[in-house]
Design goal:
By secondary structure, this protein is mainly alpha-helical. Helix content is 73%, strand content 0%.
């Protein structure tokens, strides 16, 4: 799987968290006004308008709305962390990987046991060609979630970028064994394709 596609899919996965509970009227209003919230709207309700902006491809507006929402939250709170994850994904969709990495750094600071935050920051570092930092984050995500085959694949890519091919092969073999235990045929196929592309 190409790195850009992995980032896009991962950003979607990371931001599929519990959406704010809205009334039917609020939902209709957000849809009808697209990404422009009325005066007085704040907090998590702004997430819905930011989502509308993303659907329109207006990432700058989405980023502004997530930033505005964060002014309503306590620093370090779960709500702020949720907004950081959403905004990081918006930066990634905009291809502003450095700012996305900054938001994932803030998210990891708020939630130091959030393996996905390190995983996503590592992917940003890969695109930025900061391979040593990418490898460190891939390793950290595995420390927090050692049986996650996706994280093993991430680290295999990082090892491959740093020319540690035997370690890359070992991680891919470990991922393959987990997929085999899970009966995940798609995962097994993915590992096979990656090993072929890496000529391992």
């Amino acid at each position: 799987m190409k790195l850009q596609k992995m980032i896009a899919l991962s950003a979607i996965t990371l931001t599929l968290v519990a959406a704010p509970m809205l009334t039917y009227q609020q939902s209709v209003q957000a849809e009808s006004t697209a990404a422009t919230p009325p005066a007085g709207v704040g907090g998590k309700l702004l997430f819905l308008y930011a989502d509308a902006a993303i659907n329109e491809g207006n990432y700058d507006q989405a980023i502004a709305l997530y930033t505005q929402a964060m002014t309503s939250f306590q620093p370090g709170s779960d709500d702020e962390s949720e907004a950081l994850g959403y905004r990081a994904a918006a930066f990634s969709n905009k291809k502003d990987y450095a700012k996305a990495a900054d938001d994932y750094t803030a998210l990891a600071k708020n939630q130091p046991k959030n393996a996905k935050a390190y995983r996503m920051r590592g992917l940003m570092y890969s695109v930025l060609e900061k391979y040593d930092l990418s490898l460190a984050d891939a390793t950290k995500s595995l420390e927090l979630d050692p049986k996650n085959p996706t994280y093993l694949i991430d680290r295999a890519f990082a090892y491959n970028y740093t020319n540690e091919r035997e370690k890359a092969k070992a991680d891919l073999n470990a991922a393959r064994e987990i997929f085999k235990e899970q009966g995940d045929k798609a995962g097994l196929k993915e590992v096979k394709e990656i090993m072929k592309s890496m000529r391992l």
